[in-house]
Amino acid sequence: MGIIRCTLVLALISVLGLAGCATAPPRSDYSAFRTENPRSILVVPPINKSVDVNAPDYFLATIATPLAERGYYVFPVNMVRSVLADDGLSDANLVHSGDPRRLGELFNADAVLYISIERWDAKYVVLSTTVTVELNYSLKSAHTGRELWKDHRLLVYSPQNSNSGNPLADLIAAAVAAAVTKAAPNYMPLARQANSQAVSLKGTGLPAGPYDSLYLKDTGDF
Predict the structure, then answer these.
(1) pLDDT band at 42, cuts 50/70/90?
(2) 206/174 Cα distance (integer angstroms)
């Protein structure tokens, strides 16, 4: 009995030791961000790596609101695109490969947000359609050009089939729902959710901006 009790005690100590060593996911490094302390964000047209040619237009309609809600001034995205086109920068790849300091001078912005749309597609498999949105974010200083923050988001949505108790009716309903989703997938909710997570999650999102009541009060979370 003494040996068994000793073994149990040692096992418990081992488990507790492992639990004590468990650590939370690492936070992003905000030292550069805090040093720059940006007040305004310029969102440039995203690079589109998806097969949907309309993805950039739809995405741009979802990004300004979460940034503004975090307390930053966001330049109107349509105005930005128009000004860039007039300046010979209508190609997103050209804008992304350029110097963010030039954009800062052009718009008098503090930071430039670059986004690449990795996936924006709907995949049809038998009786279900899976909608996927994958995005990369990179915020760079418009004064020094260095990266201040980055994030990656991958969201997938697959409609849940209803269960009415009638297998044939459920099968038909699932087929119809999948066909409708495939014909006209709605990416906007996924894009909004991805932006909200990227911008607002503690430890990985953006610290509160100067137009938010938590400005400079959230250093414990960011």
Answers:
(1) very high
(2) 40
Of 117, 4, 85, 96, residue with least CA distance to 44? 96
pLDDT of residue 125: 66
With tokens 């060593």, the residue in question is 21
Homologous superfamily, domain 27-119+134-153+187-200: ABC-type transport auxiliary lipoprotein component (3.40.50.10610)
Task: At 180, list the tokens.
Answer: 């409708």
Alpha carbon separation from 43 to 29, 183, 198 (Å, rounded): 22, 30, 15
Integer Rg of the chain from CA: 23
88-107: buried (b, 16+ CB within 10 Å) or exposed (e) per residue?
ebeebeebbeeebeebbeeb
Please answer whether residues 156 and 131 qualify as being in contact, where contact means their C-beta atoms are separated by less than 8 angstroms.
yes
SS (HEC) of 100-136: HHHHHHHHCCCEEEEEEEEEEEEEEECCEEEEEEEEE
Write down the pLDDT at residue 158: 79
Residues 6+ apart with CB under 8 A from 147: 32, 138, 139, 140, 141
Separation CA 169–CA 199 (nearest Å):
42
Query: 137: closest CA among 90, 70, 212?
Result: 70
Q: H/E element holding 95?
A: helix 92-97
Which amino acid belongs to residue 63?
A: I
